[in-house]
Amino acid sequence: MRPASGSPLARDAMAYVLAGGRGSRLRELTDNRAKPAVYFGGKARIIDFALSNAINSGIRRIGVATQYKAHSLIRHMQRAWNFMRPERNESFDILPASQRISELLWYEGTADAVYQNIDIIEAHDPKYMVILAGDHVYKMDYERMLQQHVNSGADVTVGCLVVPRMEATAFGVMHVDETDRITAFVEKPADPPGIPGQEDMALASMGIYVFDTEFLFDQLRRDAADPESNRDFGGDIIPYIVKHGKAQAHRFTDSCIRAAEEIGEYWRDAGTLDAYFEANLDLTDTVPKLDMYDREWPIWSDAVVAAPAKFVHDEEGRRGHAISSLISNDCIVSGALAKRSLLMTGVKMGSFSCVEEGVILPYCNVGRHVRLKRVIVDSGVRIPEGLVVGEDPELDAKRFRRTESGVCLITKPMIDRLA
C-alpha cells in the first residue's frame, strides 16, 4: 500500500513518541543507551522508524519524550532531526523527564510522559495526537489511521496487529465486535480473545494511539487525579475509554507501507537479543521482508560524513569480499569475508578474518584470523586477533552473553575480561 495523497489530517496532527524505555531484555546492549537509540540496519537507530513514518505521513510537529540514559538518543536526534523549520509551522521537541510537575517524580508511566508536557503541546495547537512507541521497526502511513479515526467518530483509535491467537499472550489484546469497535482490552492474557470470524487470530496492540487532542487532555487530567492509576496508556487510559467511550481498532494491514517487492506486512519489536539479531539479518535476504531501499518511503537518519566502504586484497585465502551483507560507509574489509552480516559505520576487518551472520555495530575492529558466527558486537569493540566465537557453545557461554538460540552478544567489558 502506498502513501495516502494530500495528508490533510496529518497537517493538523502532532506525533508524540514515547522513547524513555530502557529495553532491559536487550541486556548489555542497553547498559549505556535507551532501546530507541540502539543501532539498526546499517546506519539507522530504532527510533528512526517511528520518526520517519511521521514525516513521510505528512506530520510536521513531533515531540519525543526521553528518560532512561537518553544522552546518545538526544545526540542522535539533534544531529539527524534538526531540519524542521518553525517558519513553516514545523517543530521537533525533545522532552526529557525534567520534573515539570513535581520536584520528586520523573515520568511515572507512558500517559504521565504526555501529561507532564501538556503545556508544550498546547503551544503547537494540534487538532489530533498520534501517540507512538519509539522502539519498533515498521513502515506505516499514519494518515490512513487518522482518516479512520475521524470517519468512525472514535474517542481513541488503537493500532493493532493481526497475530495467531496464542502468540498474542505477550501483548495487550483487543476484544472487538464485527465493526472492530473495541469491547474489551486485556493486558497479556493467558487465553487471548479471537477476532469475530477469525477465531484462531487475535488483535494485538502496537502501542499506537490516535486521539482528538482536547479529549486526550481531559483523559490525562482525569487519570492524573486518580491515586490508583499507574499512569499508563495500555493499563489505564485505554481500558477506561473502552468502558466509558468509543475505542476503535485500526488494523496495520490498512496502513502498512510496502514496496513493490515486499510481500507481507513487516512489524518487529526488536526487544530481545534474538529478535534484534533476526530483524537485522532479515535485511540481508535477496528480497528483504523490509525494504530499506524504498525511495518513496525513506527511513531518515543521521547523514554521517564518511568515506565509502572499501574492499582490499585479492589473493587466495586473503580476499576482501562480502556475500548477502550490508556494508556501511567507512568500512574496510581487508582480505576478509563478511557473509550474511551487517557491518555498520566504520567497521574494520583484518586479513584472514570471517564474520558469518554477524551484526557488527559502528566502529568495531575485527582482528586478523578472527572467526565470528551468530554474533552481535557492541559499538567500539576491538576483537583481538585469533578470537573464535560461535563454534564452542560452552566456551562462548562462559565468556559472553549467549542466548538460547546460540546468538552471542560481545561487549567491551567482556573482551576486557579475556585479557
From TrEMBL:
Gene Ontology MF: a single term: glucose-1-phosphate adenylyltransferase activity
Residue stretches making up the Glucose-1-phosphate adenylyltransferase/Bifunctional protein GlmU-like C-terminal hexapeptide domain: 307-410
The reaction(s) this protein catalyses: alpha-D-glucose 1-phosphate + ATP + H(+) = ADP-alpha-D-glucose + diphosphate
SUPFAM superfamilies: Nucleotide-diphospho-sugar transferases, Trimeric LpxA-like enzymes
Source domain of life: Bacteria
EC number in record: 2.7.7.27
Residues flagged as site, Could play a key role in the communication between the regulatory and the substrate sites: 67, 106
Residues where alpha-D-glucose 1-phosphate binds: 107, 172, 187-188, 205
Swiss-Prot/TrEMBL keywords: ATP-binding, Carbohydrate metabolism, Glycogen biosynthesis, Glycogen metabolism, Nucleotide-binding, Nucleotidyltransferase, Transferase
Name of a matching Pfam family: Hexapep_GlmU
Record InterPro entries: ADP-Glc_PPase (IPR011831), ADP_Glu_pyroP_CS (IPR005836), GlgC_bac (IPR023049), GlmU/GlgC-like_hexapep (IPR056818), NTP_transferase_dom (IPR005835), Nucleotide-diphossugar_trans (IPR029044), Trimer_LpxA-like_sf (IPR011004)
Pathway annotation from the record: Glycan biosynthesis; glycogen biosynthesis
Domain Nucleotidyl transferase: 16-285
Keyword Transferase: yes
Major enzyme class: transferase
Subunit structure of this chain's protein: Homotetramer.
Family: Belongs to the bacterial/plant glucose-1-phosphate adenylyltransferase family.
Function summary: Involved in the biosynthesis of ADP-glucose, a building block required for the elongation reactions to produce glycogen. Catalyzes the reaction between ATP and alpha-D-glucose 1-phosphate (G1P) to produce pyrophosphate and ADP-Glc.
Protein name: Glucose-1-phosphate adenylyltransferase
Natural source organism: Novosphingobium soli
